[in-house]
């Protein structure tokens, strides 16, 4: 599969391929990638749970463990909740390629490229932000061991706030343990970035197509001039072809958004539950981490809150943008000279204008609309749960 516009989606393709979610890769490679990730995550989950049964558990220890268990569990649920929709991902890409192949004016081509570039840049910024934090944390883990600042050596592992039990002499195999933990820490964001980059790609494509059709709506009847009867008839015939194409493309946008909804609705709900829980426990840990020896746990908690906020605000922002762009499209149709068209053509356009009262909305199982007001509500919910747990 090679398309001229694929350069905008190379990073998205990389993330999906590494995690085994790229719909065009071979079955063997996809299964191999998913198997490696699953084995590493399950082994990490086993060591994390084992530490609870082999350590002196108090509230501080338990909060540390839960904070780090949730990303591990979330990684696996994230991977397999997307896996069941991989055929829908392929259909989304096929529809995207069809839209790119449409005959467009120079201005419309610029619109398509602008939104594709915005999605690419947003993915790069998210990747750089997350992995800058991740790499900095890994370097911080190795510094005490390499320079022998802390003795005994295995205490540096305890400072990582990742409570694990390997049933081996950690001091003797400290480099192997830290190398393993580094792999886990690097792999965890990969699945999240894969799904996030896919979501950014398809939602920006929807916004681009809405603006493209809005641009066409403004020029839909520019041929019609009230000069002579002959000119009016000729103009109406030309606009009829444009209207048919316009209505078809609007229908394709609705289909595209519905496909995004069906492929993301359940994963969205699972993500929201996980993010609210993660933010609540991270805030709880911050309220406990007042002693200097808990500085690592404080760093981990702040990092998780930042990543959770990024992952929460992007889907909500793009959901809000799709709703706004679909409404703007209908307004542009209304502001066009649609009243100059034939009655049969007006009926088709009226259907589009009526969509103004039912804008396109992405939801999490119809329970939670993806929008900026909903993001505020979710964050307030996380803070409320944190305050409740703190009083217990």
TrEMBL record:
<keyword id="KW-0472">Membrane</keyword>
<feature type="transmembrane region" description="Helical">
    <location>
        <begin position="173"/>
        <end position="194"/>
    </location>
</feature>
<protein>
    <recommendedName>
        <fullName>Odorant receptor</fullName>
    </recommendedName>
</protein>
<dbReference type="InterPro" id="IPR004117">
    <property type="entry name" value="7tm6_olfct_rcpt"/>
</dbReference>
<dbReference type="GO" id="GO:0007165">
    <property type="term" value="P:signal transduction"/>
</dbReference>
<feature type="transmembrane region" description="Helical">
    <location>
        <begin position="296"/>
        <end position="314"/>
    </location>
</feature>
<keyword id="KW-1003">Cell membrane</keyword>
<dbReference type="GO" id="GO:0005549">
    <property type="term" value="F:odorant binding"/>
</dbReference>
<keyword id="KW-0552">Olfaction</keyword>
<keyword id="KW-0675">Receptor</keyword>
<feature type="transmembrane region" description="Helical">
    <location>
        <begin position="367"/>
        <end position="388"/>
    </location>
</feature>
<keyword id="KW-1133">Transmembrane helix</keyword>
<keyword id="KW-0807">Transducer</keyword>
<dbReference type="GO" id="GO:0005886">
    <property type="term" value="C:plasma membrane"/>
</dbReference>
<dbReference type="Pfam" id="PF02949">
    <property type="entry name" value="7tm_6"/>
</dbReference>
<comment type="similarity">
    <text>Belongs to the insect chemoreceptor superfamily. Heteromeric odorant receptor channel (TC 1.A.69) family.</text>
</comment>
<keyword id="KW-0716">Sensory transduction</keyword>
<dbReference type="GO" id="GO:0004984">
    <property type="term" value="F:olfactory receptor activity"/>
</dbReference>
<feature type="transmembrane region" description="Helical">
    <location>
        <begin position="35"/>
        <end position="53"/>
    </location>
</feature>
<feature type="transmembrane region" description="Helical">
    <location>
        <begin position="130"/>
        <end position="153"/>
    </location>
</feature>
<keyword id="KW-0812">Transmembrane</keyword>
């Amino acid at each position: 599969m090679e398309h001229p516009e694929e350069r905008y989606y190379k990073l998205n393709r990389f993330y999906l391929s590494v995690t085994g979610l790229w719909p065009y890769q071979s079955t063997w490679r996809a299964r191999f990638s998913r198997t490696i990730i699953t084995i590493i995550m399950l082994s990490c989950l086993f060591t994390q749970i084992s530490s609870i049964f082999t350590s002196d558990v108090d509230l501080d220890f338990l909060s540390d463990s839960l904070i780090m268990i949730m990303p591990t569990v979330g990684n696996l649920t994230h991977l397999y909740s997307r896996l069941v929709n991989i055929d829908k991902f392929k259909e989304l890409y096929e529809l995207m390629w069809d839209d790119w192949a449409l005959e467009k004016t120079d201005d419309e081509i610029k619109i398509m490229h602008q939104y594709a570039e915005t999605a690419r840049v947003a993915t790069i910024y998210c990747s750089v932000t997350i992995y800058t934090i991740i790499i900095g944390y890994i370097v911080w883990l190795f510094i005490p061991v390499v320079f022998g600042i802390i003795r005994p050596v295995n205490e540096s592992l305890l400072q990582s706030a990742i409570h694990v039990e390997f049933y081996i002499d950690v001091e003797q195999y400290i480099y192997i343990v830290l190398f393993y933990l580094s792999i886990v820490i690097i792999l965890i964001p990969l699945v999240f970035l894969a799904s996030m980059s896919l979501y950014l790609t398809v939602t920006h494509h929807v916004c681009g197509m809405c603006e493209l059709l809005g641009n066409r709506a403004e020029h839909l009847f520019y041929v019609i001039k009230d000069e002579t009867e002959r000119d009016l008839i000729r103009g109406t015939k030309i606009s009829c072809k444009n209207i048919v194409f316009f209505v078809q493309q609007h229908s394709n946008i609705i289909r595209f958004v519905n496909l995004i909804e069906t492929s993301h609705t359940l994963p969205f709900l699972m993500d929201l539950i996980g993010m609210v829980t993660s933010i609540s426990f991270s805030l709880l840990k911050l309220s406990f981490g007042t002693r200097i020896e808990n500085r690592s746990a404080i760093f981990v908690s702040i990092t998780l809150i930042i990543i959770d906020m990024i992952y929460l605000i992007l889907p909500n922002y793009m959901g809000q943008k799709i709703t706004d762009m679909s409404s703007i499209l209908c307004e542009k149709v209304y502001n066009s000279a649609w009243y100059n068209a034939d009655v049969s053509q007006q009926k088709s356009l009226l259907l589009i204008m009526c969509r103004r009262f039912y804008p396109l909305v992405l939801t999490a199982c119809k329970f939670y609309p993806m929008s900026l007001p909903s993001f505020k509500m979710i964050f307030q919910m996380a803070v409320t749960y944190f305050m409740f747990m703190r009083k217990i």
